[in-house]
Amino acid sequence: MKRRASVIFINSLSTYARMGISMFLSLFITRTALDVLAQNSPAPKEVFGIFMLLISTSTTIQFLNESTQQAMVRFLSISLQNRDWHQTKQLFNNGWLMSTVIGSSIAVVMAIFAPWIITCFNIPEELISQAKYVVWLSALAQVINAVSQPWYAALSAEERYTLVNFLSVLQQILILIGLNLLRFVPVNLLVGMTLVWLTPGAIIGILLAGWLTLQKPFLRLDFHVINWQDSKKLFSLGGWSSLIGFASNLYERTDQILINLLLGPALNAIYAVALQLGSALNRLVTSLTTVLLPAASRLSDSGSVWEKQQLILRSTRYVLTLALPAAFGVGIFRREIIELWLGKGFEQAIAILPLTIFLVFSRIPIFVTWPYLTATNQLKLPALAILLDGICNVFLSIWYVKDFNLGLAGIVLGTLSTNLIRFIFFQIPLVAKLVELPIYQYWLKGYTRPIIPMFWLVPTLWLIELWKLPIALTASLLIISAVLYTISVWLWVFDEYERKLFIDIVNHVLRSKKVRIY
């Protein structure tokens, strides 16, 4: 148990380091993109909104490949734990074939229907030609990413998340460099931004595939080991995961499409700002849940009931401990953050951000449960539930905007309403039943402790924002609040076992003579 906890701790640490760096890089990327557009376009917000709409729409159907990747991580984790190299090779090759076929099929559909896709959006006539190239380039990138994704799955199954995190940060750095180069390169805005956005990921994927092929014999392509049985297992789990991905995209991507159709493309940029800050908070949750999937897969195969319960309870507490102060901090200081980031002119983003943050709260418990549901291959009911919610979200968003005239807030409220219902009445009871834990104990042990420090932290942050003190004094008070919060987490959120485990892990890491770079 301690060894597994140590691996999770190190991977989580590197993942959160990557997440923090990525959050700042994302802010710089958005700001740089708007600055570049402002130099070359009379309506930079509108062009940026169209670009984000096209990119997000093109990536909507990538959930099919991502679902196959998650299924591969689940089964590869177990075969690697058992050191069954032949089974590992079979799973890898079956997964590669599925990923390549699915990715190529998606790309062909995107390329063929690009003109029709463009006509569905309210895009100015002078940008229609460029918009088609955006979709076609996205289709090409989809093929490359699909071919290389199985190697990413193998890295995750081996719990080599430090390397995965490094590659993710490197990709963002390359995007930022490319955006700055656009200032000096005469190219169509939408096409140039698309190339900058998609090329780094494709190149890194190809290089990673080549490197791992040379390093690991069981990660080499060998079509002789492909068999129907392994494909069936991957297809079953990946299929339900794909349905979940499709329904999730009804939440995420159709919101942008609805904004474009109902409110205009300029408001998509406003929505993207609020969504990006909300997504940064979401990553506090998803970063940890991604790391947990291999461990959850191994526990589902050979772990005790107590270990399964502890995985759910402790991961819930840890995620809330990180996400709650960050979310309240962003909500309280939202005006200062947005104006420091992008300047004036984003009042609507400031107005809807509290709803976006509340949406993060409702999604935290849902995200935390996904690794265990995937590891135990229990995705059928959640997939059907989230599909129903996704459909309801579309109708509720239109209703809030059209009948109640709520504008952007109506779009967010549509998503929030269905998430709250699913969180309270479906997802939590389902997971509690799977780990044989009474629902009230799940609420009590998973959610009560992280909320206790919020009773003093939130009023403190609110007063700091209200006083409008000088920057140096404000920063000092925030640092003191962070230190006190850390102490309160150590005393109130962690139990005796967790405190001892944490000290043992730190001591083990400090004493370790063998250092791995991945």
From TrEMBL:
Protein name per Swiss-Prot or TrEMBL: Oligosaccharide flippase family protein
Keyword tags: Cell membrane, Membrane, Transmembrane, Transmembrane helix
Claim: Lyase is one of the keywords in the record: no
Transmembrane portions of the chain: 48-65, 96-118, 133-154, 161-182, 194-214, 257-277, 318-337, 349-369, 381-400, 406-425, 470-493
Organism: Amazonocrinis nigriterrae CENA67
A single cellular component GO annotation: plasma membrane
Residue ranges that the Swiss-Prot or TrEMBL entry lists as coiled coil: none
Lineage per the UniProt record: Bacteria, Bacillati, Cyanobacteriota, Cyanophyceae, Nostocales
Pfam family, one: Polysacc_synt_3
Membrane topology note: Multi-pass membrane protein
UniProt-annotated location(s): Cell membrane
Annotated signal sequence range: none
InterPro entries cross-referenced by the UniProt entry: Poly_Biosynth_Transport (IPR050833)
